[in-house]
Amino acid sequence: MATIFDKIIAREIPADVVFEDEHVLAFRDIHPQAPVHVLFIPKRAVPTLNDLGAGDELVVGRLAMAAAAYAKREGFAEDGYRVVMNCNGDGGQTVFHIHLHLLAGRPMAWPPG
Ligand code: 5GP
């Protein structure tokens, strides 16, 4: 089922895109939870982490590597950051197109709430 992220990929609705390549799109979260809050999504829609299968290793790997490269480019890699992938109800997932949250610009509490 199409989600809001498919519409962002298709440029049917606007987003503040900060990175794009053949496989990955990254844009600022509309409700930022930190001074930096960017979502990294695969262009191929996969609803949840549970739906990944054999051969999909690169799907998540590309998101993580794009996020780390962004952190280095933007100059906060050494200070640190958090990446989060929420899955289904208890994980707090609300958009069913897998995405990696990159949060930075403030200290992050652990354990999370
Ligand atoms: P989840 O809760 O599924 O892990 O994260 C979904 C994220 O997508 C939320 O942080 C939410 O603020 C963000 N989001 C939902 N709709 C939009 C939108 O239309 N544009 C952008 N940029 N972010 C969105």
Say how many strands there are: 5
What proportion strand? 15-25%
Instruction: Give the C-alpha Rg.
Output: 14 Å
Strand order of the largest sheet: 1-2-3-5-4
Runs in which pLDDT lies below 50 for 5 or more consecutive residues are: none
Mean pLDDT: 97
Structural class comes to: alpha+beta
Helix content: 10-25%
What's the assembly state of these chains?
single chain
Rough outline: globular
Small molecules held by this entry? guanosine-5'-monophosphate
Tally of separate helices: 3
Distance between the termini: 30 Å
The biggest beta sheet reads: 5 strands, antiparallel
What string, H for helix and E for strand, traces the elements in order? Answer: HEEEHEHE
What does this structure look like?
- The protein has 113 residues and is an alpha+beta fold.
- Helix content is 25%, strand content 21%.
- The chain is built from three helices and five strands; from the N terminus they run αβββαβαβ.
- It has helices at residues 4-9, 57-74, 88-91; strands at 17-20, 24-28, 36-42, 82-84, 100-104.
- It has a five-stranded antiparallel sheet with strand order 1-2-3-5-4, covered by helices on one side.
Architecture blueprint of SSEs:
Layout: H1 4-9, E1 17-20, E2 24-28, E3 36-42, H2 57-74, E4 82-84, H3 88-91, E5 100-104
Antiparallel strand pairs: 1-2, 2-3, 3-5, 4-5
The structure holds guanosine-5'-monophosphate.
